[in-house]
């Protein structure tokens, strides 16, 4: 039986759809609180490592935050295809039903979205945690890894927006949900990875330049 739902398009078929139980404020409140808790913990933990700058602390917080978001939140979406049918929905199921008001391709199980989120959850999630570890322990591959993940995030976000545009870009329940969920919330995975790529690229170039100077002096 096709359930009545608040998503666009209205003719989207969602058999046995179970309406959202939690309010928007509750869903966002829990997510914000959990995120702040994670960031605070990482910030304190980062302070225990020697010679960690404030920028590196911020980057560690970002990588752990985005890594857990990829693995837990997006991983749940990928591996729980019938989340909208749950009679006793979990918090994560409620999150995706709420977010689907901004992009119904999630509740509609769009293949492009599943592919992007699957790669993000399985590859970029663990890699993001590794990036935080690499920064803390000053691994030589730190900046290269950060560039690789950030470029992956930028590519995934580009595919996400482009496929929506090519399919008509009409998946939001209202203008409010379109801009708040679809545009604003996803924008963080555009400008933050972009800044990381620029910073790490400069760091790598500077390191190579120093090595070249040392080689020139020893000749």
From TrEMBL:
<feature type="transmembrane region" description="Helical">
    <location>
        <begin position="112"/>
        <end position="135"/>
    </location>
</feature>
<dbReference type="GO" id="GO:0016020">
    <property type="term" value="C:membrane"/>
</dbReference>
<feature type="transmembrane region" description="Helical">
    <location>
        <begin position="178"/>
        <end position="198"/>
    </location>
</feature>
<keyword id="KW-0443">Lipid metabolism</keyword>
<protein>
    <recommendedName>
        <fullName>EXPERA domain-containing protein</fullName>
    </recommendedName>
</protein>
<dbReference type="GO" id="GO:0004769">
    <property type="term" value="F:steroid Delta-isomerase activity"/>
</dbReference>
<keyword id="KW-0413">Isomerase</keyword>
<feature type="domain" description="EXPERA">
    <location>
        <begin position="55"/>
        <end position="197"/>
    </location>
</feature>
<dbReference type="GO" id="GO:0005783">
    <property type="term" value="C:endoplasmic reticulum"/>
</dbReference>
<keyword id="KW-0752">Steroid biosynthesis</keyword>
<feature type="transmembrane region" description="Helical">
    <location>
        <begin position="20"/>
        <end position="46"/>
    </location>
</feature>
<dbReference type="GO" id="GO:0016126">
    <property type="term" value="P:sterol biosynthetic process"/>
</dbReference>
<keyword id="KW-0812">Transmembrane</keyword>
<keyword id="KW-0753">Steroid metabolism</keyword>
<keyword id="KW-0444">Lipid biosynthesis</keyword>
<dbReference type="InterPro" id="IPR007905">
    <property type="entry name" value="EBP"/>
</dbReference>
<feature type="transmembrane region" description="Helical">
    <location>
        <begin position="147"/>
        <end position="166"/>
    </location>
</feature>
<dbReference type="GO" id="GO:0047750">
    <property type="term" value="F:cholestenol delta-isomerase activity"/>
</dbReference>
<dbReference type="InterPro" id="IPR033118">
    <property type="entry name" value="EXPERA"/>
</dbReference>
<dbReference type="GO" id="GO:0000247">
    <property type="term" value="F:C-8 sterol isomerase activity"/>
</dbReference>
<comment type="similarity">
    <text>Belongs to the EBP family.</text>
</comment>
<dbReference type="Pfam" id="PF05241">
    <property type="entry name" value="EBP"/>
</dbReference>
<feature type="transmembrane region" description="Helical">
    <location>
        <begin position="58"/>
        <end position="79"/>
    </location>
</feature>
<keyword id="KW-0472">Membrane</keyword>
<keyword id="KW-1207">Sterol metabolism</keyword>
<keyword id="KW-0756">Sterol biosynthesis</keyword>
<keyword id="KW-1133">Transmembrane helix</keyword>
């Amino acid at each position: 039986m096709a359930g009545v739902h608040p998503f666009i398009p209205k003719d989207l078929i969602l058999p046995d759809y179970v309406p959202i139980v939690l309010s928007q404020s509750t869903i966002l409140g829990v997510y914000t609180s959990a995120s702040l808790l994670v960031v605070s913990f990482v910030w304190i933990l980062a302070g225990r490592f020697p010679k960690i700058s404030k920028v590196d602390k911020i980057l560690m917080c970002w990588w752990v935050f985005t890594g857990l978001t990829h693995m837990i939140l997006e991983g749940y979406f990928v591996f729980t295809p019938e989340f909208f049918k749950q009679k006793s929905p979990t918090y994560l199921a409620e999150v995706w039903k709420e977010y689907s008001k901004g992009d119904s391709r999630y509740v509609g199980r769009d293949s492009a979205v599943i592919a992007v989120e699957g790669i993000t959850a399985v590859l970029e999630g663990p890699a993001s945690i590794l990036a935080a570890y690499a920064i803390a322990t000053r691994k030589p591959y730190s900046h290269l890894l950060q560039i690789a993940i950030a470029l992956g995030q930028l590519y995934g976000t580009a595919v996400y927006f482009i496929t929506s545009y090519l399919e008509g870009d009409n998946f939001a329940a209202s203008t409010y949900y379109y801009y708040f969920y679809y545009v604003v919330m996803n924008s963080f995975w555009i400008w933050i990875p972009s800044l990381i790529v620029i910073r790490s690229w400069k760091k790598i170039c500077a390191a190579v330049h120093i090595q070249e100077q040392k080689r020139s002096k020893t000749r």
